[in-house]
Specification:
globular, seven-stranded mixed β-sheet, Four Helix Bundle (Hemerythrin (Met), subunit A), 11 helices, homodimer, Rossmann fold, alpha/beta, 316 residues
Chain lengths: 316, 316
């Protein structure tokens, strides 16, 4: 029996991938049934499923739905979103597996284990009474596991080291206001929502003890791509002496990307910001490694100098 | 005949104050007719009229609607919103005037002149091809004049020194997406909307040449209270070497407030952020003077050291 707080956004059952539709949460808990790789690709590009690790696992299950043209399906799934490196990584993991579905299920289960491990490591940095701030959603919905930044918050809460979470609403798609609030409510963790531009004031008033966020791609030098709005948080945290943590599995680290400048940043449709008006909708931003206090991974807590720490973690 | 681009959010006609309802712009151009100070007070606290100079002028007209209890009406109007100092300033200007309505009309007309003057001074700092970023709305709607930050943008555009405006949507009430976009469209100035947390990335990419914002209160030391989200912009601008300008009439300067710490910051209802969930909704933030490149006023461009520059401007 699952724990009452467990949230599982992806289920593979009876020859189909069931995707919990994150576009309509928390108003409705609705499932999209995918029987083809193209249907999974649609779920990823439309953000019915989102979060770097979760879209990787969805794509792996998507390949399990491919017929003879497995390479064509892989190409289709790879092209859905450009920034998260977990997507291509997961596809590579399953593409040549003798049993694609079995390998996809294995990745899914490994994600749970990695999340749990990095969450425990991250939570050990917290102290009783801490008020943590997070951006977007990097919980179970985003990883199809225990959560990265969200997992750190859950573990810190379970260990009695967390008083409250400040949740950035995260415009334009409101992953904080819709998804992180939903997860924290189910986990019984106290939180308050704020607009994305309020974090600086809370830090200036000493109301934030730590910032913890997820990541969509970490370059070899430790630069971090994550949901737009992460970079300003890191700049403000540095100014106010607030530790700024990134929580991500090693599958988010891209040794082939030397620095943040080389990370492709997805530009999504302007209508997500406001319908009918000219807008620029950059979905991610890049936080330079110099602003990151530590990166929590399942292989340990990485700290500066990141180039060496990352290379060592990947070699392990 | 008014210029085609002129926007006048307050009209006193036939014994009533007509307030252009900024809560429903740009979807509807609807006017609220106020025949009593209490109705004007409602328009101010509900933000049917907003913007530091505009609420001052609205309150001045509101006093012209008072019967015998002018002091009671002044108290009611003063209590509507705590942060903008122009509110109390305008009330003080008209309270003991022999003809309240005439003095209110005079303040209104002086606002036009002050805006126009500070806008010209500010625009002279711009250079051809500049891409300016602004937050919230500090145009004609916010001042009942030519606009402060919005006036600087209009004047820079008229002088051929502005290529494009980046407009922060400005959560939670979307003054940027609703009001600044409306004004810029009417003025024919090219713009693009962004989410409030995108500005850092645009600055990191060299896509912002100047930031210009209005103010709700400027302390004697030059600290600036303005719409929440202004402080992070100033921090990011400093990091990226982008000039950060504040445009405000001298009525926004409060010699009685020594520094930003002493400025009361309005906390508005959580439901403005998201209905039904716990939220903290701070309407303003404080930008320390050290992050402000210059303050454009009708008495000249003020620069550091601000304490002296402000004292000299007020003494003039």
């Amino acid at each position: 029996m699952p724990e009452p707080t467990s949230i599982e956004p992806l289920r593979f059952e009876e020859g189909a991938l069931l995707v919990l539709d994150q576009r309509v949460l928390p108003a409705a808990e609705s499932w999209v049934r995918c029987e083809t790789p193209a249907e999974v690709a649609d779920c990823i590009s439309s953000m019915a499923v989102r979060g770097a690790p979760a879209i990787g696992i969805a794509a792996a299950y998507g390949l399990a739905l491919a017929g003879e043209d497995r390479d064509g399906a892989a190409e289709l799934l790879r092209a859905t979103r450009p920034t998260a490196v977990n997507l291509g990584w997961a596809i590579d993991q399953v593409l040549d597996a003798p049993d694609v579905l079995a390998r996809a299920r294995e990745l899914h289960s490994e994600q749970h284990a990695a999340d749990r491990r990095l969450a425990e490591l991250g939570a050990s940095r917290f102290e009783a009474g801490d008020r943590a701030l997070t951006h977007c959603n990097a919980g179970a919905l985003a990883t199809a596991g225990y959560g990265t930044a969200g997992g750190v918050l859950r573990a810190a809460w379970e260990q009695g080291r967390l008083q409250q979470v400040w949740v950035d609403e995260t415009r334009p798609l409101l992953q904080g206001a819709r998804l992180t609030s939903y997860e924290l409510t189910r986990a019984g963790i106290p939180y308050r929502l704020i607009t994305d531009s309020s974090a600086g004031t809370l830090m200036a008033r000493g109301m934030v003890d730590r910032v913890v966020v997820g990541a969509d791609r970490i370059a070899a030098n430790g630069d971090v791509a994550n949901k737009v709005g992460t970079y300003p948080l890191a700049v403000l945290a540095a100014r106010h002496g607030v530790p700024f943590y990134v929580a991500a599995p090693l599958s988010t680290v891209d040794a082939g990307t030397p620095s943040g400048d080389a990370i492709p940043i997805e530009e999504r449709d302007a209508s997500e910001v406001v319908p009918g008006l000219p807008a620029l909708n950059l979905a991610f931003d890049v936080t330079p490694a110099e602003l990151v206090t530590a990166i929590f991974t399942e292989a340990g807590v990485l700290e500066a100098p990141y180039e060496e720490a990352i290379a060592a973690a990947l070699d392990r």
